[in-house]
Amino acid sequence: MEQQWILHLKDITYTYPDGTLALDKLHVKIPKGKKTVFLGPNGSGKSTTFLHMNGLLKPQKGEIYYEGQNLSHKARKNLWKKVGIVFQDADTQLFSTNVYQEISFGPKNLGFSNEETKKRVEEAMKATNVFNLQHKPVHFLSGGEKKRVSIADILAMDTEVVLLDEPTMSLDPKHTAELMEILEKLHQKGKTLVLSTHDVNLAYSWGDYFYIMKKERVLLEGTHEDVFSQRELLEEANLEVPLILEIYQHLLERGKVKALHPPRNKEELLKYL
């Protein structure tokens, strides 16, 4: 079956006002209904790419397509209704008095009725496990709670694509696991998820399609088989081979396991053993 692409950034170039070149003829396609991961060091252009996907930044050169429709210029505001973004720092996204008001802001601005807004907010709170926090002031939330409310913000607007910029940064393992469980449920509902991270192990176990970025461009792209076998290119992007894959290859070389499909997580590796 031919792959469908929901978002297409074609030859995007963007330079910030201070003269910093952030993207240089960037070309990426986001597969519909899949989990796509952007990996790369700081300054490689991941966040700037996300801001173009969401329409918050206008490309100085190049074009943006959403399901085949060119939204590069005047129509790019339509992206806000289709593509939601969860920022790296939740404090830059949250501003309302309490959790309920925060999550209701998006649907209200999209023109939904009070009844529809309430329905969307309650569904989003339940999906992100923050229903019991709805009356709590936003500034009293923990880091993990703020991240979940940020995701609920986007869910209440029911965007087809959800962008998550470094969503696990500063989260402990427990809250990271909770967050990834929420994302998995969203994926099962058919959402297209796009995540940026420095955590190569998280990326390897979670993603379906990968973009490795370095110096404003894509260095490598493809499935996990395509990408994580390219050790030299990973090192060029200051990334390591995922630990699970490293252990599997070590065992394979010593005849401890058979040449099976490379495991994606600890559970799959243990089954092989």
TrEMBL record:
CDD domains: ABC_cobalt_CbiO_domain1. It is a peripheral membrane protein. One of its GO terms (molecular function) is ATP binding. It comes from the Bacteria. Keywords: ATP-binding, Cell membrane, Hydrolase, Membrane, Nucleotide-binding, Translocase, Transport. SUPFAM superfamilies: P-loop containing nucleoside triphosphate hydrolases (SSF52540). InterPro entries: AAA+_ATPase (IPR003593), ABC_transporter-like_ATP-bd (IPR003439), ABC_transporter-like_CS (IPR017871), ABC_transpr_CbiO/EcfA_su (IPR015856), Co_trans_ATP-bd (IPR005876), ECF_ABC_transporter_ATP-bd (IPR050095), P-loop_NTPase (IPR027417). Belongs to the ABC transporter superfamily. Probably part of an ABC transporter complex. Responsible for energy coupling to the transport system. This is ABC transporter ATP-binding protein. It comes from Clostridium formicaceticum. The gene is cbiO_2.
